[in-house]
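Supplementary Methods S3. Input chains for the assembly prediction are listed below.
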Amino acid sequence: MSRKSFPAVKNDLLLRVCREEGPVAETPVWMMRQAGRYLPEFKALRAENEFVKVCKDAHLASEVTVQPWRRFASGELCEVARSLPWAEVTAENALDAVIVFSDILTIPAALGQTLTMVPGKGPVLTPAGDAFRQVSPEDVSRFVEDELGYVFDAVFASRMKIHSAVPVIGFSGAPFTLFSYMVEGGGSKTWAAARAAFYRRIREDPHFLKPIESVVAQYLIGQYDAGADMLQLFETNADELPAEVYSEFVVPGLRRIVAQVKQSRPEAIVALFAKDYRRLEDLADFPDVLGVGWKDDIATVLAKIKARGLSKVPVLQGNLDPAVLLSGDLEILHKVKELKIKMKNEKWIANLGHGMMPEMNPSMAKTFLQAVKSSL
Amino acid sequence: MSRKSFPAVKNDLLLRVCREEGPVAETPVWMMRQAGRYLPEFKALRAENEFVKVCKDAHLASEVTVQPWRRFASGELCEVARSLPWAEVTAENALDAVIVFSDILTIPAALGQTLTMVPGKGPVLTPAGDAFRQVSPEDVSRFVEDELGYVFDAVFASRMKIHSAVPVIGFSGAPFTLFSYMVEGGGSKTWAAARAAFYRRIREDPHFLKPIESVVAQYLIGQYDAGADMLQLFETNADELPAEVYSEFVVPGLRRIVAQVKQSRPEAIVALFAKDYRRLEDLADFPDVLGVGWKDDIATVLAKIKARGLSKVPVLQGNLDPAVLLSGDLEILHKVKELKIKMKNEKWIANLGHGMMPEMNPSMAKTFLQAVKSSL
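Predicted structure tokens for the full assembly:
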């Protein structure tokens, strides 16, 4: 694949907000976990296809990737969307990006843990303890291509399927998040075993997660080369650590990964989602886009970042509490309006503070998108 | 019952740290959820007695309350402890308080929801939706006495059982935490339904939780009268809310509850545990003791509090990550030492940043207590 053969992205609002110097009048919007179980069309496809199969089959993965865009695409941009059974297409509910359908656990799976999706429980990995297979520096490129190339195919297929109508977002789990799943063997309510293992490991070797950084960076680069314009690094679980541990042992790795990606692909837009880390402003100097979970007030985060006097302030992304979508249309409109007031004249990508949830439905997403796009 | 008939507390270190003006040389210590499933003696008792029965039977509840103290009591203070089968008594591993064995869900249960403990799942309530039984202001005292008096009996029995050797801590769930359990019908990984319901309810009536405040205050007062010297208000779940919502809709209620308790029982020591609330320093002007979860750096919290220039700085309590106990003795010693350095010459009650966990064992608790009490 060569990025030169791709048609330019038609609705490049998201990219312009990230790349242009001055303000951009319109606010781009997408939703974390926008392809997923709140969509009946996703559930229909999943009913016939096992989770890991969907991830690994470029046709199925790209199909799921574009499902929310078909439903919420901009009418002007893609006539085909209007004719599809699930389409609810207007200019007012347009999604400005798709995110490739994949899983944060692709890397642990590539490293040899078996990944399955257990209904009602979520992803389950065969536990790796606190040690996992190491990939030597000279083998990283080959390893990533061999073991994770299916994700690049899914990115490429997604971009083709939407004729570059909107940007495709690629993503990877960040080192601590990967480690936490590897230790716990899946999701956890407390992540206590993961933290306990992390404390032990960093006492032995403060850099024990370093080898995984190149894998993550190379994995993001591969997705860029396959057609993803924005790459999001999900450090979703490290906010469970004490802030001072996060600061000392997690941030440097995030910084190195972003640097590695930007150095080899300067045009790639790199977004970092560190959810509820208590010192988000400390992360403001290296990614292009910085996600904000729902517990922080985005205006406070922005003020703290501005107080740093950086030469470049990252675009903020977020931070509507996903639970607002469950509380009714009126509440969604109110809260989005509050956010719009806070982020008026600021560079902002509207999004949730975390992912869409299975107990949601498309109508909630539609209200959110309309609230962002309309002049409330 | 009359507090005047109680013998004075013998080991009053915890009380002195809270009441005296100047610094106190020694650090008092206890552990949230110190009576619980990490103790074999607790499991032995629970094997023969259903959870709610243990809470409601003053003999059983007080037995469980004093179990960790028997195991980790100060040898000088209570000869009887030494002769008990579980005792591991030295001066170096002394617990400086017991906390009455009860549940945060006693109030929802009193309001008519049925509480059961489901193995492997935790407490389960019959769901109340987002509306719950209101208690009229004139009925609060009688309601609390009738429906929650069994907790007062447990406090009284606990104090008698230890001959006032150490202070007994009473506690209550705070309004949002109670509401969140009432809505979800038990624990939740995301608490999204609770937040969604909360947003709806505060839009209709910003003061909808106010009626519960007097119940909580009266419940704490009743525990004080029964012999508890410190009363801890657990607002464990409100940190899932956006900081600005917490600040506007949760803090005023906490403030009113503490004021009501302090006004009617000025001698009572009131502790507030707001876990990971992002603006802990904003809570510093009303409780005597302020708990700090494990994600905040306690030194940073203290510095922010001091920057407020209050006439009285609360005693801080916490903030060791409970997961440290799972990572081995060496790690416990290291981290407690770090904490002791941070809190040197400060008023501090050593504790975890959250509760003891079922996957722990008494040896971990013992190491923690020894680390606090020894001169590391």
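The interface with chain B takes residues 187, 189-197, 199-200, 203, 239-244, 278, 294-297, 300, 321-328, 330-331, 334-335, 357, 359 of chain A (CB under 8 Å). Chain A is about 45% helix and 10% strand.
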